[in-house]
Amino acid sequence: MSTSIAQAFVKQFEREVHEAYQRMGSKLRNTVRTKNNVQGASTVFQKVGKGTASTKARHGAVPVMNLDHTPVECTLYDFYAGDWVDRLDELKTNIDERQIIANAGAYALGRKTDELIIAELDKSTNYAGSASDGLTKGKVLEAFELLGEADVPDDGQRYAVVGWKQWSQLLGIEEFANTQYVGPDELPWRGTQAKRWLGTLWMPHSGLKAAGGVRLCHWFHKTAVGHASGADVKTDISWHGDRAAHFVNNMMSQGAALIDAAGVVTLRCLES
């Protein structure tokens, strides 16, 4: 077996991991503010307050809104997902096996990306309803009211992420699942990954936190959470003679931060 890998193979493997990560690794990265190619150990997202419009006297100075700019720091962390691979020569010629390893690394890093974002969403204390029942229509409408009262923009950039139990409960709500309410193009039965309802893209996720039988689901605006990437998914392949194997290491540097807590409403849903 060769003790070195052709550079072309390394580039191809890295490309496959990167594409797999973009395609199926993270479900939440595109639902939040994103900053790429960050230089350094942290970056800053700006939280901009509300402005006030005023009148002015004739020929007088235009009043200044005096917007409040609050910097929110986002720290980046390094994450790795590696595995040992024997008989790499066979791997290079077996496309299915190579893709399996590439997908496994992408999945692991994607779950970590979503874990970072969910950890920030969990900091929300804006609760809709109680934690003594599941995801009901009443709880959804209360959350809808909270978002409106907080002046969260209804501009097509609202997202709701729920557990699979709550997704099943949503299917029991006629307004969510009946074509007479949502139209034939928004039926959830065509796919189980996402659907639009109440001006929001709803999606199920298996990584939401559950404690004491209560699942934390979140309804938020894209600008409420930030995700920063210092280095997107990269792959390093090195030979270890003492193991007679190559080590395939996938790595990235990323972080997340809660920018505006008012833009997140949490729905506590009992599962037990």
UniProtKB/TrEMBL annotation:
InterPro entries associated with the record: Phage_capsid_2
The protein's name: Phage major capsid protein
Domain of life: Bacteria
One Pfam match: Phage_capsid_2
Organism: Azospirillum rugosum
